[in-house]
User: Fold this.
Amino acid sequence: MDRPEIILAPGPTPIPPEVLLAQGSPLVYHRGPGFGRLMRDVTARLKELYRTDRADVLLMTASGTGGLESAVQNVFSPGDEVLVPLAGFFSERWLNLATAMGLSVRTVEDGWGKKVDPSRLADALAERPAKAILLTQSETSTGVIQPVEELARVANDAGALVVADVVSSLGAVPFAFDDWGIDVAVGGSQKALSASPGIAFVAISERAWEAHESAALPRFYFDWSIYRRFAELPDPENPWTPAISVMQGLHAALELYFQDGVDAAYRRHELLSRAVKEGVKALGLDLFGEGLDTNWTVTAINAPEGIDADLISDRIRSDFGCILAPGQGPLKGKVFRIGHFGYFSELDIIRGLAALEMTLERLGHPVKRGAAVASAEGVFQEAAVPG
Ligand SMILES: *Cc1c(COP(=O)(O)O)cnc(C)c1O
Assistant:
């Protein structure tokens, strides 16, 4: 029998048993009080995560990219100018999506692994205004957490809307929709919240609704106005048949998440991130990307000299059933990535590092057996010492 895969990738992330049970339980019919309660609870929890009192939060059946597509369709008209700071695979997704939808897209190229520089964004907006900037908070391809608060300030000052992909960051690292002046933020069920893939959610500011009024791109399935109308029914609904089971799972996942709360989740992600980074360094490997002490979602690691990074992720999977993520775009073959946000414990990290040590040794990279595990244990033990 195949054993379950050990996922140490940045989404989908491992799913807790409570969530699996909830999504495997009998369907709640999607029009009526039962589903209405699920939607009300999930929406309230998500507002807490987004840190918003003012925004509407809408839920749609789609992967994260569907939520991103809905943002473009609902806010813009053909030919609208937007600015995309390019710093990895997911900011390129914004570029490709906005271009496909007929927007006029300008880019500021920061380079993969870089933090986007707010002053370069300010210069670009001063040179020529844009209707919006399209940001990615956690650039999953490089591990870099982008300075969204500073970037949003620059955009707000220049009168541009701020549209943010928070798919792999919401619930993992701090975010503040209202305080940071964000207009649209798109999240997904299968990342930090540890539910199954299938639900995207979008927070929408008053200014974004105003832009929506005159937005002329064609839209139907993702039309936010229709979602809002159904969400405002006495028993909230989705306009179309939603992913009911995923919603039942997401409800359970958020209940679990909020048992310990947002701050505990941030602390846990910081700790697991530090343990992974210390562990990997103890094997003589170099970490990739800027801002390592704030990159709590994903760690990108340079493969050792002479070993193709894809070989590492292939071999650890075939030998140990452990899933790491390969490098994307120009980083293919150069880096591999460990995801450590969502439902991970200390022992999950230790187990993954042990598998990595053995894999590297089998591929001919000299390791001191146990070195990564010992370093990670050191991080956990220090954190556990009272006082
Ligand atoms: C995972 C992810 C997405 C969404 O991808 P889907 O496969 O469509 O769910 C979008 N942006 C970022 C930054 C991601 O990590």
